[in-house]
Specification:
142 residues; alpha+beta; 4-stranded antiparallel sheet; 39% helix; globular; binds adenosine-3',5'-cyclic-monophosphate
Length: 142
């Protein structure tokens, strides 16, 4: 049992553009997760590159940094039992063509890159991604 975890989620520029910020948060809250930190911001290409540094050798890295800095995003920390995998299940597979019916990406995403939402893929990623955006004093556990 993973116990109570924190995970970072991002409503990406395409999600903000499509007005699905509320739908994404509703799905997370509806599954019993708490939103314990939240803000809207626009990443620079350099910041987006640092956030996705683990993908620096991948062929899509430059495009990904460009897309993630193309408009505002909403970043949030979610907390609850097994939060990391729960968020991944609610999002669906990275490629929306492979995402299970009823998941965020199956319902809203256009492509593997423009896939509406991000969620930490492991506790190690969450430990890097959460402080990337939020200091501990900016996280409000309940
Ligand atoms: P995310 O969960 O934010 O993690 C890395 C992101 O890279 C992923 O969602 C996609 O937006 C993007 N990505 C992953 N694989 C590919 C790919 N094969 N082609 C283009 N973008 C990708």
């Amino acid at each position: 049992m993973p116990g109570v975890e924190r995970t970072l989620s991002i409503v990406k520029p395409d999600g903000v553009e499509k007005n699905v910020i509320g739908d994404v948060i509703r799905r997370f809250e509806g599954s019993g997760l708490d939103v314990v930190a939240l803000k809207m911001l626009r990443l620079s290409p350099e910041e987006a590159g640092r956030f996705y540094y683990v993908h620096r050798e991948r062929p899509f890295y430059r495009d990904l940094a460009g897309y993630m800095s193309s408009g505002p995003v909403v970043v949030m920390v979610l907390e609850g039992e097994g939060a990391i995998n729960r968020v991944r299940e609610i999002m669906g597979a990275t490629d929306p063509a492979k995402a299970a019916p009823g998941t965020i990406r199956a319902d809203h995403a256009e492509s593997i890159e423009r896939n509406i939402v991000h969620g930490s893929d492991s506790s190690g990623s969450a430990d890097f991604e959460i402080p990337f955006f939020f200091p501990e004093v900016g996280i409000f556990s309940r």
